[in-house]
Amino acid sequence: MKPILFITDANFLSHLLRCIEIAKTLRNRGEKVIFAATGIYENLLKYNQFDYYPVYTNDYNHTMKATRASMFRYYNPARLRNCVQSEIDILQKIKPKVVVGDFRWTLRISAEYCKTPYAAIINTIWTPYYSLFRSISEKMVLRKLFGRKFMEFIQPRGQKFMMYRRGRPFNRLRKKLGVTPLTNLHTEMYGEYNLLPDIPEICPAKNLPDNFKYIGPLFSKDASLPVPKKPGLPDEPYIYISLGSTATIKMIKLVFKAFENKKIPVVMTTGKQKINCQKPSNFYLFDYLSSKQAFKNADAIICHGGQGTLYQALSYGVPIIGIATHNDQQWNMDRIANLNLGIQFGEDSCSSQNIYDAYIKIGNSPLYKQNCIKMKKIIDSYDTLNLAADAIMQYAEEKEKKELSCYET
């Protein structure tokens, strides 16, 4: 039996966990599943009993610096070559029937070179088919130089030019490897087949091709993280703060200051990030909690606006206060705010008082909770993991049939 191979960046908790969730579903169906991943969270693969191989992965600090600058400078020629060569080596060694990638923008080249079917997990907001406006991140260097209004005015042409420029090193490598060149970086981000871990009510798309499929929200389940059995959480309502894997020390200090000396219990999960400042006495800190634990008595969540965390909160009907630290988090929170599911801030432009006031506003405005409950009902209607597993297996079977047909001919 040929295995299914997952390749992702284990420096980022959300991308690794959503691969683990689909992989566990496939494994429960009797499929052999292997990972290739390197990063600070790779121990979670061992915890979930997956075999895995190391793969060249960009340094976490480099990736976060590029992300927060909003200029898509993730790869220079050397990093690009190292990623692709490492992926090719693994694909040729494992010979999977299908490779599934998440936040591995080099994998499309590698899969095409090895003639391996490639299914990508990609947020709708990253695709060229997302139908809503993408605001300009306050972290973007050019916005700081030229201002928000000017950057929004030139955005459509500017983004097209930037995607073309960032795609040129990929095309040079494609030509060297004898692989068909593509249009720009946008087309490198997705695969031959694509799973969108979204719902159209939050992330709508237009002119979506047949090889893109909404599967519903995809986030970690309760058995995938090493959580305490009896965490000793407050019995009364509390604020839940999730730092994920991309929160900054600035964000941590903001939320500490917002709620210190307040008679409000605060439960915070750190994702094992180091907390290098004094914890207020009303804060309960944990590396991880299960969603049932974290949202048990939560009346609001404060987070960075990552996609998985937002959907997880909405699956419990909990309103959101988002403090974006980079562009796609800002885009996510634009939508949350527009739908009155929560309140958004940018990390550089908000204060601790703003955060506290937002919490009070959410508590005094039933509309937020009501809207979140409505969205919860939509999310509950999706059988995401089985939809994803079905789609991957169907895609792999169709590719196998096509290959056999070509061979017989």
In short:
With 409 residues, this protein is α/β, with parallel strands linked by helices. The protein has 15 helices and 13 strands. The radius of gyration is 21 Å and the shape is globular.
Feature tags:
409 residues, alpha/beta, Rossmann fold, 2 domains, seven-stranded parallel β-sheet, six-stranded parallel β-sheet, 15 helices, 13 strands, 15% strand, globular
The pLDDT mean sits at: 93
Beta-strand content: 5-15%
Q: Treating each run of at least 4 consecutive H or I residues as one helix, how many helices? A: 15
The CATH topology of the largest domain: Rossmann fold
SSE order, one letter for each helix or strand: EHEHEHHEHEHHHEEEHEEHEHEHEHHH
Rg from C-alpha positions? 21 Å
Kindly provide the name of the CATH class of the largest domain.
Alpha Beta
Strand order of the largest sheet: 3-2-1-4-5-6-7
Could you tell me how far the N terminus lies from the C terminus, measured between alpha carbons in angstroms? Answer: 24 Å
Helix content: 40-55%
Q: Supply the helix-strand structural class.
A: alpha/beta
The major pleated sheet works out as: 7 strands, parallel
Per DSSP E runs of 2 or more residues, the count of β-strands stands at 13
CATH superfamily of the largest domain: Glycogen Phosphorylase B
Integer tally of domains? 2
Low-confidence stretches: none
**Anisotropy-based shape:** globular
CATH second-level architecture of the largest domain: 3-Layer(aba) Sandwich
